[in-house]
Here is the input.
Amino acid sequence: MATINVKTRDGTRNQFEGTIGLSLMENIRNSGHEELLAMCGGCLSCATCHIYVESIPAGASLPDLSRDERNFLDGLDFRKPESRLACQIPFSAALNGIEVMIAPEE
Ligand code: FES
Here is the structure.
């Protein structure tokens, strides 16, 4: 079992079991967090899956930003150093306990 911790825009914290092999975006959407719009379905063309990665487990790492992901993030008003597009992060057992926050709507 691997869990994902999500903080919504109103500050509510939710924890749920993630499905390994799906992206963080798919997991967050599947758990009922519809405020993460993910309008393009994960094909890296909308940036509406913007999250802040607040912590990852010790020893785990996230995939590097691709040029396209960086370009999308750079165009967002609410970009922070911990910003990522959730569709670009595959969920794995190594990320058990990851903590993310859904970024404000642009
Ligand atoms: S869902 Fe559109 S960029 Fe992630």
Notes: The longest strand covers residues 50-55. The pocket of FE2/S2 (inorganic) cluster is lined by residues 25, 38-40, 42, 44-49, 85, 87 (CB under 6 Å).
